[in-house]
Amino acid sequence: MSVTSARPRRAARPLVLLAVVLAMAMASTTALLGGRASAEGDAVTAGSLPCDLYAAGGTPCVAAHSTTRALYSAYTSRLYQVKRASDGATRDIGALGAGGYADAAAQDSFCAGTSCLITVIYDQSGRGNHLTQAPPGDFQGPAAGGHDNLAEASAAPVTVGGHKAYGVFIAPGTGYRNNNTNGIATGDQPEGMYALLDGSHYNSGCCFDYGNAETNSRNNGNGAMETVYFGNSKAWGYGTGNGPWVMADLENGLFSGVNRGYNANDPSVGHRFLTAVVKGGPNRWAIRAGNAQSGGLSTYYDGPRPNASGYNPMKKEGAIILGIGGDNSNSSAGTFYEGVMTSGYPSDATENAVQANINAAGYAASPTAGAPAVGARVSLRATTSCCTTDYLRHNTADNNAAIGAVSSSSPAADKAAATWIVRAGLGDASCVSFESADKPGQYLRHYDFRLRVDTIDSGALARLDATFCPQPSHNGQGVSLRSANYPGDFVRHYEYGAYVASHGGSHAWDSAIAWADDTSWVVTSPWG
């Protein structure tokens, strides 16, 4: 493998130029949030987007990833690739004009009636540092050959500047990587990075990272990586409150400051859209973060490398990871919208200009219409033409789930069996779990692909088996419920039984016939 060294850092520009850069970023707000300028996309001020601003500050992007928008004002090409389950075909999703937002309509059209996975997140820098399915390392992934899962393409809908877009929803077992990069910092070379994340989607698993990691997917010792980390793990480091925290993963340590373990200046953060920044150079590094929707960046740490052996000098290797640790530890959760890596140590002024542009971009949540609310009692009605009076229920003779007809004249026991209490997802709080209304403490879960009601122990696998993520439905009615730990599998009825099923997979219940209808459910008032 050959890794090209990062470019030498250019001399710092005068402060007056940085003031101009900041003014440009703020002035771009009107253009970014205004009406559509053409059929191709919105007008963008030249030089106003994140990688333009980093270049103006003398620390150019060497990797730029986003599934929501272009990160250069002149960028017109592909952002990411999706692969649909129905026939295995792929499609690149590009930007709507120079510096534009993602063409989400192209994804919606291509993936209509089926499911899609994100197979490639393209690098906009021109260096070819694309992110693809992470291979096995010290830890194996759940996909074939020990690879990690790929993200479901419609799992993280948002709007950006009023335009529909999709983020990268990382469930445990999902991850992306590039071990053969060009221009990424190695050794003790300076670099910067930011990641724009969903601040409400996290867990304590190791490790939801974006940034610089080992090139062999293994733990090569202290200082071998440098990434943004986001989550509430306290295993290696933490800050004030209960988390989550923005920290730096430097291998064998999540650092919230100069010390191992606790550092008081790293606060818990709770922004729905979060800008998280890490940068590092010879015996200096920093953590910064802020609300991606408004306001500036706060500096949580800026000082010398950790006072532990192995981190000064650093031994960075130059791979790029997303959603996993450097050794392919893959039990984390999070959602990624955009991020970059730079050559050289960016100034605070440059990062402040980037943050102003992120504010101006106009990220906003896009809740799934018809999704069940946590705490509600609901029933789930099938939408296939054969079965529109049938509801998802548990059997009385065994623990299996099925669909069955329920009406106002049905026995009370049948009504109760078709009623569920919606809980925050046991394995991922951004999703949901369904507690049986008449079997308190038992939850709908998949086991060997069959759905059943069961008591859920404290194990991570069982809790994920009982967690489902509502998404826009495959047939336009109600919602579809994606398995939290099998990104391509959705709750489906098949021959009146209930399963988690992929579209056209190897099992009988994966049949492509009526798959879109069978995986769509209308959330109704409870029968019991």
TrEMBL record:
Q: Which residues form the signal peptide?
A: 1-33
The answer to whether UniProt assigns keyword Cell membrane to this entry is no
Give the Alpha-L-arabinofuranosidase B catalytic domain ranges.
50-364
Q: InterPro entries from the entry? A: A-L-arabinofuranosidase_B_cat, ABFB, AbfB_ABD, AbfB_ABD_sf, ConA-like_dom_sf
Q: Which PANTHER family match?
A: ALPHA-L-ARABINOFURANOSIDASE B
Q: What family is reported?
A: Belongs to the glycosyl hydrolase 54 family.
Q: What is this protein called?
A: Alpha-N-arabinofuranosidase
Organism, as annotated: Streptomyces rubradiris
